[in-house]
Amino acid sequence: MQSGSISVAEVAGVFRAEHGRAVAVLARVFGDLEIAEDAVQEAFAAAVEKWPAAGLPPSPAGWIITTARNRAIDRLRRESSREDKHAQAALLHAQGEPVEEGVVRDDRLRLIFTCCHPALALNVRVALTLRLLGGLTTTEIARAFLVPEPTMAQRLVRAKAKIRTAGIPYRVPYEADLPERVRGVLAVVYLIFNEGYAASSGDELIRSELCLEAIRLGRLLVELMPDEPEAVGLLALMLLQESRRPARVGPDGSLVLLAQQDRSLWDRALVLEGQDLVRRCLRRDAPGPYQLQAAINAVHSDAPSTSTTAWDQIVQLYDQLLTFTPTPVVALNRAVAVAEVDGPEAALALVDELDLGNYYLFHAIRADLLKRLDRKAAARAAYAAAIPLTTNTAERTFLTHQQSTL
């Protein structure tokens, strides 16, 4: 151990940083996610007891993995002596598996693809990713997605049981399956980020802990898949969007639109990192949806104001994005850029062609365009349609205020 004490909070930080690595290695060793996770939990409990007084070990991850493996083997030996077939199988599996960290890169990739297997429901993939790779507690995940803790605990238990009983493989997919599966992995991470960036419900517009966790997972994906341009694009997109967080909410917690944001509050370090990643993507010349969205955000980050933004370039990027993702939501976002190039009437004509009646932003964007055309009664009606479709308090307050100014 190194000299000097470490606080329990610092141990918790190590837990969050090393949890995915440790579970990934132990899942390979024992061939079972539940055994791996339980063993890692026991090892971190031991760390909480020992590290504050003894100090941080030279290799915290190695200490955790070794301690977890030894404790799990002791427990499995006790259980296997009672004719527990599952314990016997796990113990036999462990006897043939080394514990070295040398293949940890592949171990974490295997864990990511296991958590994001298409046989699991999307909400379960998100929860498993946060639990096993992110090290979030069941309580934290339940709070993030506004479900009771017992409900989330049951989902996680059932998911791990399904992985075991259905024989979902703990491996990186075969090459032919890789592109589709990578898209699924990236979608899970971006879903986590989006829930943090614009919370679907609750009082707060932003859940920063989810944004930061998604970015951490994004960095991990780029580390593990450096030649996957869409992983780089996703990280760039999240960093550029996260850079605006200090300006997106007013002192009273109110929503501040892009056009009204104080851009001096944007995090320049994140902007520069995101722009550098976008340039890295451009050099590869293998565009994809996340890279194009990142490029759109990079154009925004280049401009000192809305009026000086290269909107024509943004429209062109949306045109490319529509070839990859021809969805009404992308078309709606493109229309916002068209309004800056060709005016609100041209944009409104595009918006009115979309079938997005249950999406609050469709009505909110229509309301803004109608307001700019001085069609106040129609704008009020559009705001009235938007307000009940969002359950986020900050968004509802903003829309209600906009309606009241007409």
Structure, explained:
- The structure is a single chain.
- This protein is mainly α.
- Among the domains are: 8-95; 327-405, Serine Threonine Protein Phosphatase 5, Tetratricopeptide repeat.
- The protein is built from 20 helices and 2 strands.
- The protein has a two-stranded parallel sheet.
- Helix 2 packs across helix 3 (60-80) and helix 17 (344-351) packs antiparallel against helix 18.
- The radius of gyration is 24 Å and the shape is elongated.
- The termini are far apart.
- Residues 112-163 form the RNA polymerase sigma factor 70 region 4 type domain.
- Keywords: Sigma factor, Transcription, Transcription regulation.
- It comes from Kribbella qitaiheensis.
- Residues 15-80 form the RNA polymerase sigma-70 region domain.
- GO terms for molecular function: DNA binding; sigma factor activity.
SSE layout and pairing:
Layout: H1 8-30, H2 33-54, H3 60-80, H4 85-95, H5 104-115, H6 122-133, H7 138-144, H8 149-165, H9 178-197, E1 201-202, H10 208-224, H11 229-242, H12 245-248, H13 268-284, H14 289-302, H15 311-324, H16 328-342, H17 344-351, H18 360-372, H19 376-386, E2 391-392, H20 393-404
Parallel strand pairs: 1-2
Helix pairs in contact: 1-2, 1-3, 1-5, 2-3, 3-4, 5-6, 6-8, 6-9, 7-8, 9-10, 9-11, 10-11, 11-13, 11-14, 13-14, 14-15, 15-16, 16-17, 17-18, 18-19, 19-20
Short descriptors:
mainly alpha; Serine Threonine Protein Phosphatase 5, Tetratricopeptide repeat; 20 helices; 70% helix; DNA binding; two-stranded parallel sheet; 406 residues; single chain
